[in-house]
Amino acid sequence: MGSKPPRLHSLSRGLPEPASTSLRELLDSLSSEQRLNQDLLASLAFALRNFTNLHRFLELVPVVVSRLVGVDGCLLVPFQEDGCIWRDQLQVVNIDKYQELLRQLVTFESAMMPGFASDQKQLLAMDRLVQRHLGKAGIFSTSLVARGRERGRVYVFDPSGSLIWSEVHRRNVQLVADITAVAIENDLMLQQARRHERVDRQLSIGAEIQAQLLPDSCPVIEGVELAARCRPAFGVGGDYYDFMPTRPELMGRRRERGRWALVIGDVMGKGVPAGLLMTMLRGMLRAEVLSGLPPDRILHDLNQLAQEDLAQSHRFVTLFYSDYDPRTHRLRYANAAHNPPLIWRAQQRCVSRLDAPGMLIGLQAEAEYAAGEIFLEPGDVLLYYTDGVTEASGITGDRFDESRLIRNLETSCRTGLGAQGILDQLLIRLDRFVGSEHQLEDDASMVVLKVSEELTLPSVQTPLP
Questions:
Q1: Residue scoring higher pLDDT (340 or 276)
Q2: Fold of the domain built from segment(s) 19-191
């Protein structure tokens, strides 16, 4: 009853001296190993945060794993974005000793096929290939997984025989595998971002080229109103329209009453190449306009001049060329397979197409083009446009098409609006059809020419020189 409670002794005090010393040494050894493992993992995490070269980071992975487990063998097999083995990034401890294993992996035919990483049968075949080469060595493998996608495999093995494995080893190796998967995923995302940046730069350059092609404003031409707009799509296209005096040396009133070329075209394709080709054609066309030749001859000569450059680029151009003389109200035209402009006849109150046969620019060296002409009357409206208008996709998946464009043009012309008002109405209807949350698939360009309502034919006068 008066006995005292037993005293609690430390474990070391309750053991004989040799046993106590051995336990302390064991605890010290475990602590030292734990600190070493923590340092190894910390160094790998530091490398992940700061590395700029994925290859150098992946070189470090097998070394860290082998030291964590205490073996002399570790193989890292990363996968590329398409699921193939990333041959240039295969890493192994003691590379000279395992050259034959690396050679077999590099020549493993199935591993070079896209989607290899998601084919479990093929992954097992690769596991068996590694096991066969290592013979009786103990081996452990695990996957590198990031965002649910297999980014590689890591193999840990002991060439001397069976692998002494523990739960701590498993957790450490899996932690390294997860860190490595994140590193590979980050590198793939970085490469993708760089590709997007290059595309964005190309789009920016292309948009700049295209903007320089199009006139800043419409010229003043006696007796007509002009309005023009290019509604760019997300991707840069090859749309082009222009107004060019056939006698650029004339100034003031004389220029307004002189003959003007009105042209609209489209290079097949998108991006910077399309913009560059249209820049080239613009220069050629402006030189041709100065020749004073009729539209069919201008298209013929332009086709021959551009034939070689277009053939090498595997692109073609549609182009509608016309010239208008304010003194006679005559419009001459020729067409190289472009969308025929639409003309609203004020007296007949109807819309028709303005077309002439002709091949694409760049398709055939000796192509011939037909010429047409028409006399414009007060109130007539001419609409030039590119296929980005009629090919625009609506909310329901339907196309805007030519018949819908004709109906909208008729409606706008019947209201008596000017050229700018007609153009604005057509763009409003196009935007409403496409929908505010959708993007045009191609550039949509329109040019509206309207003859003044009170136009009267001038009296006979001496022609301009």
A1: 340
A2: Beta-Lactamase (3.30.450)
